[in-house]
Amino acid sequence: MNDTRVSLRPEIVALAAYRQGRAARPDGFKLSSNENPHEPLPAVLDAIAQSSINRYPDAGATVLRGRLAEKHGVAEDQVHVGAGSVSILAQLITAAAGPGDEVVFAWRSFEAYPGLVVVAGATAVPVPNRPDAGHDLDAMAAAVTERTRLVILCSPNNPTSTVITRQEFDRFMAGIPRTVLVLLDEAYIEFVEDEDAVQGIPLLPEHPNLVVLRTFSKAYGLAGLRVGYAVGPSYVLEAARSAAIPLSVTEPAQRAALASLDHEDELLERVRRIQRTRHRVWRGLDEQGWRLPQPHGNFVWLATGAGTDEATDRFADAGLVVRGFSGEGIRVTIGEESSVETLLRVAAEVVGSLTESAQGGR
Ligand SMILES: *Cc1c(COP(=O)(O)O)cnc(C)c1O
C-alpha cells in the first residue's frame, strides 16, 4: 500500500511541523507567543493601506535597508531584510551548513533552531544550558569541531529570558575560529535594561564572523507582517540572499517597518511599559518563592519541571494560554497589564504545589 506514496526525505517526515499556541478564550489572554499586546499605531495602518499590492514588492527592500543602515551606522550592504528573522535564520543555516556539517546552539533555546538545521540537511548539536538557565558558553565553545559551520547564540534567550554578558561574549568569541559563522539572535534586545548584556551590532567591526539578527515582530509589534533583518559582513548576507525565496518581504511589511522607525519613540515608550509590567511580575513571582532567572525579554521562565503540564493546565483553566515545555518549564509572555493579576494568582497556587526539586536551581 505504501508503495503508492512518493518518496520523501525521512528526516523531514520525522520532523514535527510548527505548532502554534492555542487562541485565548474571549475573557482570557494569549501569553504563549511573546507577542506585543499593543494595537498597531495609526501611522503604521496608514502605511499598510498605501501599499500597491497588485505589484510585486521591492525585492531588495532598498529603502528600508537604507534606513536600517543609517540607524545602526553601517553600510547598506551590511543589512539584509527578510520575511521575519526566522527566514534569515533559515537562509544563513542553509548558506553555511549542509550534510555532514554541524550547527551548535544552546538548549533549551528558540524552538525553530533544531528544525531549520534538519531542513538544511546538517546536524544539530544542542548544548544544555547552565543550571541558572543561561547559555553554557564554555561548553558551546568546546562543542565546536572541524565540522562546525555555525553557532547560534540567543540573547535574551527564548524561553529562559537570560542574557549573555558582554564579557562572556568576548571570551566566547576569542575561542571560536574565525571561519565559523556566529549568529547572535537579538529578537528581544529592545527589552533589555541590563548594561552588562551584550549588544552585537557595535561589536561587528571586531568580529568578522558575526551576524546579528533583529526583528520587527516583538518590540515593534509587527509579528503578523513578517519582517526582520540581519546586520553583518556583506558577503555573508549576500549568501543569505542567494538562499532566500525572492520577493517574500511584502510591500505592506516594508512600509510598516519604515513607519515604525519613523515612530520609534512611541513604540519604545510601549516597550518601557512592558518593562515596568515585567518588573512587577518578576518581583511578585520572586516574593511567592519562585526561583526564576531575571527576565530580560518580554517573557518570564517558570521552572516547573515535572509539574509543567499540570501547571500549564491550571493557567489555561484561569484563561491564560502559556507556553509549557513538558518536563522543563513554562514561558509566560508579559502581555496586557490586565493579565497580571490572574497570572500572579495562579502562579501563587502553582508554586505552592511544586516540590523544591521540581524547580531548577538558581
Ligand atoms: C520571535 C523570535 C524571532 C523572531 O521571529 P520573526 O521571524 O522575526 O517573527 C527570532 N528569534 C527568536 C529567538 C524569537 O523568539
Automatic annotation (TrEMBL):
Keywords: Aminotransferase, Pyridoxal phosphate, Transferase. GO terms for molecular function: histidinol-phosphate transaminase activity. It is an enzyme of class 2 (transferase). Gene3D superfamilies: Aspartate Aminotransferase, domain 1, Type I PLP-dependent aspartate aminotransferase-like (Major domain). Its EC number is 2.6.1.9. Residues 27-344 form the Aminotransferase class I/classII large domain. It comes from the Bacteria. Its cofactor is pyridoxal 5'-phosphate. Pfam families: Aminotran_1_2 (PF00155). NCBIfam families: PRK03321.1 (NF002878). Belongs to the class-II pyridoxal-phosphate-dependent aminotransferase family. Histidinol-phosphate aminotransferase subfamily. This is Histidinol-phosphate transaminase.
